[in-house]
Write a structure and sequence with these properties.
- By secondary structure, the protein is an alpha+beta fold.
- The chain has a single domain (21-235), classed as 3-Layer(aba) Sandwich (Aminopeptidase).
- Helix content is 29%, strand content 29%.
- It has helices spanning 42-53, 73-83, 133-149, 164-173, 204-215, 230-235, and strands at 4-5, 11-12, 30-31, 35-39, 90-96, 101-112, 117-125, 154-160, 176-187, 190-200.
- The strands form two sheets. The chain has an eight-stranded mixed sheet, sandwiched between helices. A two-stranded antiparallel sheet has the order 1-2.
- A hairpin with a 5-residue loop joins strand 1 (4-5) and strand 2.
Length: 236
């Protein structure tokens, strides 16, 4: 990539003369082979999500989220209505096509169309979605919308630095670690050092190819049994 310098010899960013702001992510369905992402609807999804999350009897899935666990269904439903129906964050329910039930959520947030930057976050996978083809495909579908449909330049993933599972997932999906923001957030009465990861547009073609090869029927059977791992295709 060509480096440009100012009249004083200082480095400046490469020019983007044809750049136009992106559209905001739409409130529409994303369809895959193993899952479907639907804009979160309390009437359709709240009960199924609450039941799915309830399978985690130790409430571990709520540890690194800003909300939850909840005392009961009405408290959860009220929180959804107050916090999860706006345009930023824009929440989606992950529907497992094998059971036709909502088993997790994820959202776009900190949406910045002018700069072509968006974050994926508030991810909560119930035990039924964890370590499944549907769970991985949901992340691919959200990336594909951002880069292929909307033309964003940067896709971010942030998490508590103590959340080893989230950091491991980010790397598996192809995100690059960019650094640690110390004492970035207070939540649930404790400090959070935030680990930052990102995928940028020039990373995407290789990451997309790895996802699509991994998801193909030649590698991944209808019941989610893989011949080669996603990491194998990314390293290859």
């Amino acid at each position: 990539m060509t480096e440009f310098r100012s009249a004083l010899g200082l480095p400046i960013g490469f020019p983007l003369p044809d750049w136009k702001p992106c559209a905001a992510p739409p409130r529409t369905v994303m369809q895959g082979r193993f899952c479907r992402l639907e804009p979160l609807d309390v009437a359709r999804h709240a009960d199924e999500l609450f039941r799915a999350f309830g399978a985690d009897t130790e409430n571990r899935i709520w540890t690194y989220l800003s909300a939850g666990p909840f005392d009961g269904f009405e408290a959860y439903r009220t929180w959804l209505e107050k916090s999860c129906l706006g345009d930023d964050p824009l929440y989606f329910a992950v529907i497992d096509l094998a059971t036709k039930r909502a088993v997790g959520v994820a959202s776009y947030l900190r949406i910045d169309p002018a700069n072509g930057v968006v974050e994926v976050g508030s991810i909560n996978y119930s035990p039924a979605l964890q370590r499944t083809a549907a769970g991985t495909e949901a992340m691919y579908l959200m990336m594909k919308r951002v880069f292929d449909e909307l033309g964003y330049r940067r896709y971010e993933w942030k998490c508590d630095d103590l959340n080893a599972g989230s950091k491991r997932a980010a790397r598996r999906y192809g995100f690059t670690y960019e650094g640690l923001f110390r004492q970035a957030v207070l939540y649930k009465g404790r400090n959070r050092d935030t680990a930052w990861f990102a995928i940028i547009d020039r990373d995407w073609p290789g990451i997309k190819s790895a996802f699509e090869t991994w998801l193909a029927p030649e590698n991944l059977s209808a019941d989610g049994e893989q011949k080669k791992s996603l990491s194998d295709f990314r390293s290859g």
